């Protein structure tokens, strides 16, 4: 199997800035950062790399939460990392990504935010008041690397700086 990527942590400074925006009441950001687990596969046959919650959180029905993972991915040209919710969360609690599928392009790694992978989840449960709680270290999303091609007449020459719609600004 071809090795095409490497997961790394973003710098503490980048993580702290992004984390405080989304979890302003967190007590010890340094401890959260130090305990970040790099994504990993559960079995040799797994396609998906599990992303782990950096902190305890509760996702309430009808609400969204942006989770700074503290992770970035150095990806070879011709490959992309797709992010999906863990299937059990979707099946049991209707947890989904707000952008349906996260697309992490190889050039995102060099963005001014260090390519920090942020995952926005929402809970679309049918039961009023439904909530799902995850503990730090629980798997909540998975990433799958896929190879892609380009058209014969492709002439893209833009340079990325950022995520979430940055190439169409």
Report on the architecture of this protein:
The strands form four sheets. The chain has a four-stranded antiparallel sheet with strand order 2-11-6-8. It has a three-stranded antiparallel sheet with strand order 4-9-7. The mean pLDDT is 93. It is built from three helices and eleven strands, in the order βααβββββαβββββ. The N and C termini lie far apart (37 Å). The protein has 169 residues and is α+β, with helices and mostly antiparallel strands.
Q: What are the main properties of this structure?
A:
four-stranded antiparallel beta sheet, alpha+beta, 11 strands, three-stranded antiparallel beta sheet, 3 helices, 169 residues
Topology:
Blueprint: E1 5-9, H1 12-22, H2 29-34, E2 49-52, E3 57-60, E4 64-68, E5 71-75, E6 79-85, H3 87-93, E7 95-97, E8 102-105, E9 118-123, E10 131-134, E11 139-147
Antiparallel strand pairs: 1-5, 2-11, 3-10, 4-9, 6-8, 6-11, 7-9
Quickly count the helices: 3
Which shape, going by the Cα principal axes? globular
Give the distance, in angstroms, between the N- and C-terminal Cα atoms: 37 Å
| Major sheet | 4 strands, antiparallel
H/E series:
EHHEEEEEHEEEEE
Q: In which order are the strands of the major sheet placed?
A: 2-11-6-8
Q: Please state roughly what percent of the residues sit in beta strands, choosing from under 5%, 5-15%, 15-25%, 25-35%, 35-45% or over 45%.
A: 25-35%
**Alpha-beta content class:** alpha+beta
Report helical residue fraction.
10-25%
- β-strand number: 11
Poorly predicted parts: none
- Mean of residue pLDDT values: 93
Q: Rg, please?
A: 16 Å
């Amino acid at each position: 199997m071809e090795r095409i990527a490497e997961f790394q942590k973003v710098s503490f400074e980048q993580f702290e800035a992004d984390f405080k925006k989304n979890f302003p009441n967190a007590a010890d950001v340094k401890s959260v950062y130090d305990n970040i687990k790099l994504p990993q596969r559960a079995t040799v046959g797994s396609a998906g790399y599990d992303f782990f919650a950096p902190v305890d959180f509760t996702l309430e029905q009808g609400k969204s939460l942006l989770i700074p993972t503290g992770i970035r991915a150095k990806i070879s040209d011709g490959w992309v990392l797709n992010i999906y919710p863990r299937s059990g969360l979707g099946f049991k609690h209707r947890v989904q990504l707000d952008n349906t599928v996260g697309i992490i392009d190889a050039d995102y790694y060099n963005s001014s935010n260090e390519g920090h992978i942020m995952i926005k989840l929402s809970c679309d449960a049918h039961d009023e008041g439904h909530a799902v709680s995850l503990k730090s270290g629980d798997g909540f999303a998975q990433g799958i690397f896929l190879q892609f091609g380009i058209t014969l007449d492709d002439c893209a020459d833009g340079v990325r700086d950022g995520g979430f719609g940055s190439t169409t600004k």
